[in-house]
Design goal:
Blueprint: H1 3-20, H2 36-39, E1 58-69, E2 73-80, E3 83-90, H3 91-94, H4 96-102, E4 110-119, E5 125-136, H5 152-157, H6 159-165, H7 167-188, E6 193-194, E7 200-201, E8 213-216, E9 221-225, H8 230-238, E10 243-251, E11 263-272, H9 276-295, E12 299-302, E13 305-308, E14 314-317, H10 318-324, H11 330-334, H12 336-346, H13 357-368, E15 377-380, E16 402-407, E17 410-417, H14 422-436, H15 448-456, E18 461-467, H16 468-476
Parallel strand pairs: 3-5, 6-10, 14-15
Antiparallel strand pairs: 1-2, 1-4, 2-3, 4-5, 7-9, 8-9, 10-11, 11-18, 12-13, 15-16, 16-17, 17-18
Helix pairs in contact: 6-7, 8-15, 10-13, 12-13, 14-15
Length: 513
């Protein structure tokens, strides 16, 4: 029998022994009156080796994280969701029966303790236990104290263990909750209304991505898990809601990487009578404010690189970025034939046969510029070919009133002044469908109802999508998207080691991870 099996066997034997003593090892009657963090300040006025003056009895519950036994006494550390405190268990105080049961306790057990506060010789606040209650017997051991979960894949696959033993993981997810709460507060204070749109859609739209497909038996029709909520949120603008937002789950049947998970969280918000310039202003304000609120600074360290989120942020067009950062001759950038040749021949970019110069410029930007944008930078004037839902720029009809925000070489947000012309919109969707050709990876179908909604009249508006997971990665200094998703998707354990990860195709809507 190997060591792991031996430990499991011993745990089960202890559980059986406790049950034989008449102890319910999965009880549900102990109700702690106190959280551990409530007790910690009470130790400030206690002298070493002294009890609290009034000898109050407190009750706490939590998981045993460490244990030191000394014959007729023992020290444990008990942890609940608010903190950790030392417990002193002495046979003379608990009595023979309770102490005999305690000897079969293990690290990882969830227990209830009643007792009085005191300080040890070393000045550590502790609870002198009067009553011991087994709440849940742990049948599996926690990772070894000083090493924890060193296997990254195990941390993601067994997040419940990771949260028990890794304070940094708990801190990340608490910060995630706080960031999302603050986003709601920020938008609510500016008159935005939170809404919910369908997760199952008859036509997946709002981005260029491969959807998950399912079938609804009662309706007798195929449905798709949404790749973006964009087209439904725009329908609400048509309906008269002038400021709407949704913090939504999106699904894309594509690869996994440190930046991509098939299921991810997005913020999308839309404002009537606004332009993409307004979206840049509100994005700059939102993200810098979030950093100040959760990190108490706008200068953050992301994986060894200092990033300054203090406004104002840099703004440049895609063509300007290609020249200034990509080091492409401005004459080539302006020449459609030469930019296509540069992309296809010199740089080896794979483009569809019908792809035009706009897609070549975008591909070269992704290749030569994107990863160099460390401090927040808005890139504007995206080619119309890669922006089928964005408003055409009135001065330069070859580009759109659109921006993407990049921080640490990653796209964080995508926004544009919305296309409200139903005739132009239909033509662009038809062009997108034609370019898809026989590519079964991307579902392309005319959304007649969306075009019909635009025909009723949508107010001039701007909208934006922000990848919540990537934003939280930035604000928590997390290297992988799996570090900020509680239960990331993983290959089955039986398939062995993971292959090299591949990211998904680059979608064209606002909604990006």
């Amino acid at each position: 029998m190997n060591q792991d099996n031996q430990v499991l066997k011993q745990r089960r034997e202890k559980a059986e022994a406790l049950s034989a003593l008449g102890i319910n090892i999965f009880s549900n009657g102990f109700k702690p009156a106190n959280r551990i963090k409530e007790l910690l300040p009470k130790g400030e006025h206690l002298a070493e080796e002294s009890f609290e003056e009034n000898r109050f009895t407190y009750s706490v519950a939590g998981r045993i994280m460490s244990m030191r036994k000394f014959g007729k006494a023992a020290f444990c550390h008990l942890m609940d969701s608010s903190g950790k405190i030392q417990i002193y268990i002495k046979k003379d105080i608990t009595g023979e029966e309770q102490f005999a049961a305690f000897k079969k306790w293990d690290i990882g057990d969830i227990v209830g303790i009643e007792g009085k506060l005191f300080k040890t010789q070393t000045g550590e606040l502790s609870v002198m236990a009067d009553r011991l209650v087994m709440i849940t017997k742990s049948l599996r051991p926690l990772p070894e104290k000083w090493h924890g979960l060193t296997n990254v894949e195990t941390r993601y696959r067994q997040r419940y263990v990771d949260l028990i033993v890794t304070p940094e993981s708990r801190a990340i997810f608490r910060k995630r909750v706080e960031i999302i709460r603050l986003i709601r507060e920020f938008l609510g204070n500016r008159g935005f209304m939170e809404v919910e749109t369908p997760m199952m859609q008859p036509i997946p739209g709002g981005a260029n991505a491969k959807p998950f497909k399912t079938h609804h038996n009662a309706l007798g029709m195929d449905l798709y898990l949404r790749i973006a909520p964009e087209l439904y949120l725009k329908r609400l603008l048509v309906g008269g809601f002038e400021r709407v937002f949704e913090i939504n789950r999106n699904f894309r049947n594509e690869g996994l990487s440190t930046r991509h998970n098939p299921e991810f969280t997005m913020l999308e918000f839309y404002q009537a009578y606004a332009t993409y310039h307004d979206m840049m202003d509100i994005t700059e304000e939102l993200i810098s404010w979030l950093s100040q609120e959760v990190n108490e600074t706008m200068e953050i360290d992301y994986q060894g690189t200092m990033v300054d989120l203090s406004p104002p942020w840099s703004r440049m067009t895609m063509d300007q970025a290609l020249v200034k950062i990509g080091r492409i001759d401005p004459e080539i950038v302006k020449d459609n034939d030469r930019i296509l040749a540069l992309a296809r021949v010199t740089k080896g970019v794979k483009l569809e046969p019908l792809a035009g110069p706009g897609k070549a410029r975008t591909a070269l930007f992704e290749l030569l510029v994107e990863e160099k944008l460390i401090n927040p930078t808005f890139i504007t004037s995206y080619p119309i070919e890669v922006s089928p839902l964005a408003r055409r720029n009135e001065q330069d009809p070859g580009v759109t009133d659109r921006f993407e925000l990049f921080i640490t070489g990653r796209e964080i947000a995508n926004a544009f002044s919305e296309l409200s012309d139903p005739i132009d919109q239909r033509q662009r969707l038809e062009q997108q469908i034609a370019e898809k050709g026989d590519d079964d990876e991307i579902h392309a179908e005319m959304d007649e109802d969306f075009v019909r909604a635009l025909e009723y009249g949508m107010p001039a508006a701007a909208g934006q999508g922000i990848g919540i997971d990537r934003l939280i990665m930035l604000l928590t200094n997390s290297p992988s998207i799996r570090d900020v998703i509680l239960f990331p998707h993983m290959k089955p354990e039986t398939e062995g080691e993971e292959k090299k990860e591949k990211g998904p195709n680059n979608p064209c809507g606002k909604c990006k991870q």
